[in-house]
Design goal:
Layout (H helix, E strand, L loop, with lengths): L1 E4 L11 E4 L12 H21 L1 H6 L5 H7 L2 E4 L3 H29 L4 H14 L3 H6 L2 H25 L3 H8 L2 E4 L1 H22 L7 E2 L2 H10 L7 H9 L1 E2 L1 H12 L10 H11 L15 H11 L1 H14 L7 H10 L2 H25 L13 H16 L11 H4 L9 H10 L6 H19 L8 H4 L2 H6 L7 H16 L5 H12 L2 H8 L2 H17 L1 H39 L15 H13 L14 H16 L21 H6 L9
Parallel strand pairs: 3-4
Antiparallel strand pairs: 1-2, 5-6
């Protein structure tokens, strides 16, 4: 959580400063947005509950309520997935509701002439309960619940009325709630978009693309079926499952040279070989894990030291008793010898030097901790503009006279000058590098525009005042959230005996400057209260309760799905029985008397019999269309254009009495639930 807060260290009289606070790493009951928002409410509710009963809370001010926190929310920062955007929309609604509640409470506190509002709300409450007589029969507890709900609705109603009386500027300030996406994810997805466009270029221009890099199983299928001219189904599937290109080559290199599983790959053998031969400590970029820019960095390294990696693969092969490549090593060897693959590696390396590294220097550099993402609209516009310049003139980044002053997006020196120089040298042997580069930048530019839509002209961020941007301060990247989760996973792996509550206590104490806060704010009774709360939390077995709630929620979802499955099966059996009872209609006038479910069942039966019913006519179509289709089918049947394959005419009035098991066993009459 990012907020203006006091600094509790040295210089305690300093004004409020931008701070980032960790409320802990918590688990929602499932991955839905609804449960995420509910979890946020629970976390904030626990904070408010503990604070309100603490000596510190009693000393320092009024009660803290969750609605007060939601009222102050001004924005949300996340990655770009649909689930997180749904979280934002739901949080925005909570913010709006909190605004009405806050204004309503203020109206009730300041306006004594609210008798008419109370009378009207009370009358509506009694009417909704079924009238005065039914209201009087309710228990005291039930009446109290209705009155609490009535009061809550009244506060919201008063808040809405109060909100409408405000000026447009005041409304805008209260409604302020901005979403912004993580800068790292913007760059990551832009590379993905550029790579997709680059890979498509080869096929679009009918030029042989990068060599296939099949895994061990698919390679066996392709080799076995390569003797014939015909492509077998197994071969076609293997081709569809096989990838190729610069990204794949970088991934393979990471798997071989720096695998996240220390029991796979060459790891230290590679590092020692490199140190011995080049007198330099070097670790291959970590493409085996999910790391931002790792594939582009790997591409730059592969291009810069192409001959060195080929030599190491030879060295690794000769170290083996059988003296041959593994399938993965063979694939990397082929990729490093393929001109099309090297073209893609060169393009990836160029993009990183021209766009990714300059962008990350401004969003993830040492000074980025104090940068407000909402102030970077110009930066994101400049990135897009520089992509367009390179699309129009690729000689800005490929050619003998390229300089970082005009080639790099920020005009600063290349992040890896050696890699960029290697690309320029290699470009002479890559005839398609310029059009492939343009294709990559076109795909990247389109993706960048999509993933920076929150900065679009006329949007909320573009039209926000500087005061509003400061109010909704957010960092350029989502590192603090992903870092908190990563730190949790690492520590729990090392110390699995820790509970999540114990981890949160450690992490929050370190992250939130808690020691300095206690030194400045705590009295003896505060230390006593903290110890009491810790003992109480331990005695209540909160971690055990949390895990139990997770399992109960999972089981409840399973039970719900099983019940729904059983209901669908029962409906299918009932439908099959109804359709089985339908008989052929020879007189088209009978169709006029068919209504509702009978009409739909007749249509389903005729489709089952193979009648010439148009494909666009379904049980959800309008009644007139269904009747017209049935009449046409009857006329076609009477003309002998199709044969009836249903039950006999004499069985038309019989009811379907078969059991569920019998109906399910007669596959001819099974009908899928629509």
């Amino acid at each position: 959580m990012h907020l203006q807060a006091e600094s509790y260290g040295e210089g305690t009289d300093a004004p409020l400063q931008q701070q980032t606070r960790l409320p802990g790493v918590h688990s929602a009951l499932d991955g839905s947005s609804e449960e995420s928002i509910k979890s946020w409410k629970n976390v904030l509710g626990d904070i408010a509950h503990i604070y309100n009963q603490s000596p510190l809370g009693i000393r320092t001010g009024p009660l803290l309520q969750v609605v007060d926190i939601f009222f102050k929310l001004a924005g949300m920062h996340s990655d770009h997935c649909a689930k997180e955007k749904k979280d934002f929309r739901m949080m925005e609604k909570e913010k709006e509701l909190a605004t009405y509640q806050s204004l309503g409470k203020k109206e009730m506190a300041e306006n004594e002439d609210l008798l008419s509002h109370f009378s009207r709300a009370q009358a509506q409450m009694i009417k909704a309960a079924g009238g005065k007589k039914k209201w009087e029969k309710l228990s005291t507890i039930e009446q109290a619940e209705h009155e609490a709900k009535m009061l809550e609705n009244l506060v919201i109603e008063l808040g809405k009325e109060s909100f409408e009386k405000l000026s447009d500027d005041e409304k805008r300030t209260l409604k302020l709630f901005i979403w912004v996406g993580c800068g790292c994810h913007k760059d990551l997805n832009t590379v993905r978009g550029g790579n997709a466009s680059m890979m498509a270029w080869w096929k679009e221009n009918n030029i042989p693309g990068p060599i296939l890099l099949a895994n061990k199983d698919n390679a066996a299928v392709l080799n076995a079926d390569s003797t014939g001219d015909e492509i077998t189904p197994a071969m076609e599937r293997a081709l569809q499952m096989t990838t190729r290109g610069g990204i794949k080559a970088a991934q393979l290199a990471g798997e071989i040279l720096n695998n996240k599983n220390d029991k796979k790959g060459h790891h230290n053998a590679f590092r020692w070989w490199w140190s011995t031969n080049f007198n330099d400590e070097f670790t291959f970029p970590d493409t085996s894990n999910n790391r931002f820019q790792s594939h582009c960095e790997a591409a730059a390294v592969l291009v810069q030291h192409l001959d060195c990696f080929i030599k190491f693969l030879d060295y690794a092969k000769n170290q083996k008793k059988v003296m041959r490549f593994s399938n993965m090593e063979q694939n990397l060897w082929k990729a490093l010898d393929c001109p099309a693959t090297k073209t893609e590696l060169a393009v990836l390396a160029v993009y990183a030097q021209v766009i990714s590294h300059p962008y990350m220097r401004q969003t993830r550099g040492p000074a980025a901790e104090k940068i407000n993402m909402l102030d970077l609209g110009v930066l994101h516009k400049n990135v897009y503009g520089h992509m367009q310049r390179i699309i129009r003139d690729p000689s800005l980044v490929i050619g003998s006279s390229v300089t970082y002053e005009t080639g790099a997006m920020d005009g600063q020196p290349w992040e890896y000058p050696g890699a960029f120089a290697a690309v320029q040298q290699l470009a002479a042997d890559l005839p398609h590098i310029l059009p492939v580069l343009v294709a990559f930048f076109k795909g990247a530019a389109a993706t960048w525009k999509c993933f920076t839509s929150e900065f679009a002209p006329g949007g909320l961020i573009d039209e926000a005042t500087q005061e509003e941007k400061d109010q909704a301060w957010m960092p350029p990247t989502n590192d603090v959230n992903e870092g908190a989760l990563g730190a949790f996973r690492v520590l729990m792996h090392r110390q699995p005996q820790l509970s999540s509550m114990q981890y949160n206590a450690l992490a929050m104490y370190r992250q939130n400057d808690t020691h300095a806060f206690m030194e400045k704010k705590f009295h003896p009774e505060d230390y006593k209260f903290v110890r009491e709360m810790a003992r109480l939390a331990d005695a209540e077995g909160l971690e055990k309760k949390r895990k139990l709630e997770l399992e109960q929620h999972k089981q409840a979802k399973v039970n719900k799905r099983l019940a729904a499955k059983e209901m669908r099966a029962a409906k299918a059996v009932q439908k099959a029985a109804r359709i089985k009872a339908i008989a052929i209609i020879e007189n088209k006038e009978e169709v006029k008397g068919l209504k509702g479910q009978k009409l739909k069942d007749t249509l389903a039966a005729y489709k089952k019999w193979g009648a010439p019913i148009p494909a666009n006519v379904t049980t959800s179509s309008v009644v007139a269309a269904i009747r017209t289709a049935l009449v046409d089918a009857i006329e076609s049947y009477n003309a002998g254009n199709w044969q009836f394959k249903g039950p006999s005419k004499t069985d038309s009035d019989n009811e379907a009495t078969s059991s569920a098991e019998e109906s399910e066993g007669e596959s001819e009459w099974e009908v899928e639930d629509e």
